């Protein structure tokens, strides 16, 4: 089992839904998955915060773009954090070692951990300032 795909992951601060609508209209993108912050198990996000996009996947032109809003109230979106390289694994066999190797000399922004969506997920900024998201499917 190995790394399966590499995608661009775009981050927004409350405007992800608008961006998705633009990409649908302008580029013919199709939304294949969309989950809002209000749908997180145990979440207490309401109103505009709950409507923010936690994760969306769009396909167009033979490619995939992933999109999300930042966590409500985090203020975490700055120049250089609007895009990530998202790497997807079909198992957890390689993810820990590759995450650790890429983190050397960089900064882990979210340690790898098992998530409610059935994956091992973590984020880091490598020594060159590139933001990465790792997502490895957990055994079912």
Give an overview in words.
This protein is of the alpha+beta class and 140 residues long. The protein has a single domain (3-137), classed as 2,3-Dihydroxybiphenyl 1,2-Dioxygenase, domain 1 (Roll), CATH 3.10.180.10. Helix content is 19%, strand content 44%. The protein has helices at residues 16-27, 47-51, 95-103, and strands at residues 3-12, 30-36, 53-60, 63-69, 83-89, 107-114, 119-125, 131-137. An 8-stranded mixed beta sheet has the order 2-3-4-1-5-8-7-6, with helices on one face. The longest helix is centred in the first third of the chain and has 12 residues, at 16-27.
Number of domains: 1
Q: CATH class, please?
A: Alpha Beta
Strands of the largest sheet, in order across it? Answer: 2-3-4-1-5-8-7-6
Please work out how many helical segments DSSP would assign: 3
Which percent band covers the strand fraction?
Answer: 35-45%
Name the overall outline: globular
Structural class: alpha+beta
Find the count of extended strands (DSSP E, 2+ residues). Answer: 8
Radius of gyration: 15 Å
End-to-end separation in angstroms reads 15 Å
CATH topology: 2,3-Dihydroxybiphenyl 1,2-Dioxygenase, domain 1
CATH architecture group name = Roll
The helical percent reads: 10-25%
Mean pLDDT: 89
SSE pattern, N- to C-terminal: EHEHEEEHEEE
Largest sheet: 8 strands, mixed
Poorly predicted runs of 5 or more residues: none
By CATH, the superfamily comes out as 2,3-Dihydroxybiphenyl 1,2-Dioxygenase, domain 1
């Amino acid at each position: 089992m190995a790394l399966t795909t590499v995608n661009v992951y775009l981050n927004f601060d409350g405007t992800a839904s608008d961006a998705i609508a633009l990409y649908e209209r302008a580029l013919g993108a199709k939304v294949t998955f969309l989950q809002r912050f209000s749908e997180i198990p145990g979440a207490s996000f309401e109103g505009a915060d709950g409507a923010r996009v936690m994760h969306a996947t769009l396909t167009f032109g033979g490619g995939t773009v992933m999109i999300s809003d930042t966590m409500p109230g985090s203020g975490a979106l700055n120049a250089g954090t609007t895009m990530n390289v998202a790497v997807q694994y079909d198992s957890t066999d390689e993810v820990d070692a590759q995450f650790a190797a890429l983190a050397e000399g960089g900064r882990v922004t979210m340690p790898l951990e098992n998530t409610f969506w059935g994956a091992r997920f973590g984020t880091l900024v490598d020594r060159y300032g590139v933001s990465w998201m790792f997502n490895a499917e957990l055994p079912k």
